[in-house]
Amino acid sequence: MKLAMENVKDFDWSVELAAEFLSERLGEVSGIAVVLGSGWDALIDERRVSHAVDFKDIPGFAVPTVAGHKGRVLNYTTENGPLLVQEGRLHCYEGLSALDVSFPIFAYARRGLKAVVMLSAAGGLNPLYIPGDLMIVRDHIFLLGENPLSDLRLDDSRSIHVNLAGIYKHEWREAIKAALPQQTRCEQGVYAYVKGPTYETDAEAAFLRMAGADAVGMSSIPEAVCAAFLGLEVAIMCCISNTLLPSRAPGLTHEEVLRVTRSRAKVLEGYLDSLLAHTYPLIKGL
Ligand code: HPA
User: Fold this and answer.
1) How far separated are the first and last CA of the chain, in Å rounded?
2) For the chain, what is the domain count?
3) What is the whole-number distance in angstroms between the Cα of residue 27 and the centre of ligand 1?
4) I want to staple 118 with a disulfide (CB 3.0 to 4.6 A). Which of 35, 73, 109, 262 is the partner?
5) Which atom of ligand 1 sits closest to the CA of residue 199?
6) CA of 5 to the centre of ligand 1 (A)
7) Which ligand 1 atom sits closest to the C-alpha of 248?
8) What tens-digit pLDDT sequence spans the chain (286 residues)?
9) How far, in Å, from the CA of 39 to the mean position of ligand 1?
10) CA of 213 relative to ligand 1 center, distance in Å
């Protein structure tokens, strides 16, 4: 159903309200937003949070319902400047549209942010991966599930037919990798997006592997598509919280995904400092 022009204005107005609210409540941040998905909240040192707002208070933001996703936007003090950090995220399997899930990205872009880096958990399909490995997304497969841009109605000349070839730029992938401690096990691979909330059957895992995926997860890609639409740079790194191939360990649960990712993130103390130092030069001049 095509939305009336009022709805176009409503969406745009909601984005404006959210952006203004964040500007008032968060203060100055560097031009990069970092989204912390399942388990990555372990990177947060509460003493470094200078400002925090809950999703429930931000106009237009939905509220996360999943364990491990606090739903806060922070001004986080790093050694290299203030960083906008989104602690927790929204998922389509929470009964939200792909555009609802991506709404925060529209608000950050309206505030003038230039790039978004997303950290998430994923299941390993590449048989060489082991739990706790990191994978930087080189490309994605998003053939199943709703594309957020199909819900977007525009009253200007921007096109929703965004060319996603090369969406994850080499220099961004290298920068988020260089920010890791040396010797960290980290590969680059293809991420298959699924809506979830169920984990894959063995046949589905084999199918996604055959299609060329190294990992599978239920997040990040709707937001990445919107980031590309908005002209933001985007980079994604996942913690392989569990493996699906060549065989899966028994006991795959959301709690286990959180546990493995949290313990991986815990030993990356200082990653947010280093991430800003390595990515900031890339947004200069954007
Ligand atoms: N499948 C889908 N999403 C996930 C998985 C998985 O095995 N692990 C963490 N997120």
Assistant:
1) 36
2) 1
3) 35
4) 35
5) 1
6) 38
7) 7
8) 334 455 667 888 899 999 999 999 999 888 999 999 999 999 999 999 999 999 999 999 999 998 877 899 999 999 989 999 999 999 999 999 999 999 999 999 999 999 999 999 999 999 999 999 999 999 999 988 899 999 887 777 788 999 999 999 999 999 999 999 998 999 999 999 999 999 999 999 999 999 999 999 999 999 999 999 999 999 999 999 999 999 887 889 999 999 999 999 999 989 999 999 999 999 987 7
9) 12
10) 13
Q: Residue 18 in contact with residue 55, Cβ under 8 Å?
A: no
Distance 10 CA to ligand 1 centre (A): 35
Atom of ligand 1 nearest to the CA of 217: 3
Atom 6, ligand 1: residue with shortest CA distance: 123
Q: What tokens appear for 59 in the block?
A: 């106009």
- Which CATH number is 178's domain given? 3.40.50.1580
Q: Provide the residue range defining the domain that includes 31.
A: 3-241+250-284
Answer for the pair 56, 63: CB distance below 8 angstroms, yes or no. Answer: yes
Q: Which residues contact ligand 1 via a Cβ below 6 A?
A: 121-123, 199-200, 216-218, 241-242, 244, 257
Q: Would you list the DSSP string of 194-247? A: ---SSPPPHHHHHHHHHTT-SEEESSSHHHHHHHHHTT-EEEEEEEEEEE-SS-
